[in-house]
Amino acid sequence: MVRPDPSQRPSAVPSDVRADAAAPERRLVRGRPAKADTAPDEGMEAQMQRAWIDLFDAIKDAGYEKRHLVKTTVCVTEGGHLRLFRAVRDRMMRGHVAASAYLHVAGLGAPAHLVEIEGELVRGA
């Protein structure tokens, strides 16, 4: 069997990509409907709004801005709230657009929490 000479293989890195280019910074942050030592507000809408506020606080605390938010993954424990989620998201995002996944799950870490939002941040892309 003849094996190809490794030095003759095409490079895995395209020629127009600089080797010294810095990779984008990525970070995950989470928004919850209540702080660890407090009870969440009653109702899905109130918890969604509080989770978005908490997410934006986490973005700021991480040294990023809302414009760095490229994707959200939202987990809810009750079905039938997709329209409500979209309305709250659109109101809270104020025109910023990011990819979004909406998942209905059996439960979250804290039984009283109805929603949790994970945000993916990218800077330097």
Question: Tags for this entry?
Answer:
125 residues, alpha+beta, 60s Ribosomal Protein L30, Chain: A, four-stranded mixed sheet, 2 helices, 4 strands
Describe, in plain words, how this protein is organized in 3D:
It is a single chain. It contains two helices and four strands, in the order βαβαββ. Helix 1 (44-61) packs parallel to helix 2. Helix 2 links the parallel strand 2 (69-76) and strand 3 (99-104). The longest helix has 18 residues, at 44-61. It has 125 residues and is an alpha+beta fold. It is 24% helix and 24% strand. A four-stranded mixed β-sheet has the order 1-4-2-3. Residues 13-17 have low confidence and may be disordered. The chain has one domain (24-118): 60s Ribosomal Protein L30, Chain: A (2-Layer Sandwich), CATH 3.30.1330.40. The N and C termini lie far apart (43 Å).
